[in-house]
Amino acid sequence: MTTQFAIRRELAPLSQDIIEQLPDGCLWVDPDNGCIVGCNRALREALSYALHELIGRPLRMLVAASREPGTEDDSWRILAEGGELQDVELTLASRSGASVPMRVSACGLRGHDGSLRWNLVVLRDAARRRQTEHNLIASERSLRALAYELTMAETRERERIANGLHDEIGQILAMMRYKLGEIEQSFGEPAGRLQLGEQFAELQALLRQASAATRSATFDLSSPLLRQLGFKTAIEGVAQQLTRAAGPRVAVVGELPALPVAEPVLSVVFRVVRELLFNVQKHARASQATVSLSGLPDRLVVSVADNGEGFAVRSFAEQFGPEGGYGLVSAEAQMRAVGGSLAVESARGQGTRATVTLPLQAQG
Length: 364
Prior knowledge:
The chain is α+β, with helices and mostly antiparallel strands. It folds into two domains: 2-131, Beta-Lactamase (2-Layer Sandwich), CATH 3.30.450; 226-364, Histidine kinase-like ATPase, C-terminal domain (Heat Shock Protein 90, 2-Layer Sandwich). The chain has twelve helices and ten strands. A five-stranded antiparallel sheet has the order 2-1-5-4-3, sandwiched between helices. It has a five-stranded mixed sheet with strand order 6-7-8-10-9, covered by helices on one side. Helix 6 packs across helix 10 (263-284). The longest helix has 61 residues, at 126-186. 24% of the residues are buried.
């Protein structure tokens, strides 16, 4: 009991109270003889021991008989001799003999004269920790599945709206232009035809603008080229659109085999690549960009590289702020939702390369 008294004398009463109330188990070992000289309530409750049943007893009494022989001997020796351990799993024995897995860390505590006085051992319930980790993994999987379903639902809704714009509104606008032309031709008086002709010309100009806006909205929501002619042709269409708009010259290189990817998933990849190209147009100050396509046996890889001014790459979370960055954050989130990834490499004055990767084995 002399060593136990020394512990209480050399540790402040407040520290004693804090250790006693800790949710993790704690015990002290005398490094001279490997005996237990103190323990807190959490450890006693975890192993169903009373305090007097542990004090003065060898640390080895807590070694579980059911463990595999030899697997933990070195760790128990280190604990008994006052050495250090960092988050090692050991199997302890409760009072009833039941095995209790715990994560164990230990460090030596020294007295005022610098000599090793005892070893402080902290023990955490490994089973509870494993269950917590299991729950976290399960929650992450559920969130990933939910994100995937939401992304797919958004893609399907985009396609539905795009089809409605093209098939219904687009056809109505075309029919209106045709009917206006017929009405204009039906007037016989030259003066009246001239006056109405001007009005019809204004109406037809407005309808042409509406038709163009409808086509643009349809393409933004869901590329018809992607559905009809494939991924590479759709990307080439975006490249031509940017080049015609006095943006950087965009080249598309590489070939793709038939991809075993669901159409909604491929639509997500297409939208992300298109967003990357629009970023080049809006922010990079580049004169040229290259889209490289690579269909490997196990993954689809698409990279967008430009010769622009570049920027300091930070995490996607840090990119998002009052000055912008939502595009990259959204693109990265969409790729993660379908099981893929987005990586960005850049430096000021050295251009930017953004690489989209989609594992193919996860698709069906």
